[in-house]
Here is the input.
Amino acid sequence: MNWEGNLRKMAVKWGSSAKNEVQYRWVGADILESMPPMDPHLWIGQELTLEFEGVIHCVATGKRIRKTYGEGMSYDAWINAPQAVESVFNPELSRIHEGIALRDREWEEAHHNQPHVVYISHTSGLKVGVTRATNVPYRWMDQGAAGAIVIANTPYRQLAGELEVALKTHMADKTNFRKMLAQVDFDAKLLLDAREDAFEWLGEAYESFFEGDAPPMEMIYPVLSYPAKIKSIRLDKVPSFSGVLLGIKGQYLLFDENRVFNVRNHAGYRVKLSS
Here is the structure.
């Protein structure tokens, strides 16, 4: 296998052979030229070599850049691109449901003035989050959750963000990647109990949005073994490395010798990949 192009975060999907099995598709390609996608979960157990070519392109504009902001953007794109609008990171700030766009009306209508869910996922621990309803369960796979449960349905992003803010005083809204990259077992009762706690914390003001029937969902990742003590690989410091791919979880490739590679953090980096 030989592949050359700019990295993008991996797409996720359900596997066809086993229930709740997560599979991956590497849709990253040349910024200016599309290339065939690959399925990196099929590489598990093989020795791979990844070489950084010393070139980074902005994933939004294709412009060659020295460093990235966000997920592979140039600074100009970061402060101007619709997908980096502040309400992406702070959903409660969205105002598109009022007809007010923060950056790009068309993009915000399509992405933020849409039904959203509030959920609790089990990643490194329990965390609260929001996502578009159409992103379930893919958002949970993307963050490496062992399980997750929907707790509320809202008609637009700002309201989901409002519920999230209320719940952040009781539980985390971030993932500790080191704990997530360990063996985390699915626990349906933990999620069901957490949902009941969330209903109590939110109270009657939000009761009409509660989702009490959706079952907890389990995600099973293609991992042969988890790292005992994580050693993160950064292409800026280690431009070339080889190793046996032992698994994939979230946006991380897990290699032998406890090494992990965050694909998302290297979006826009041009690399050669071979086995």
Remarks:
- The helical segments are 75-80, 86-89, 105-111, 138-142, 157-167, 177-180, 188-202.
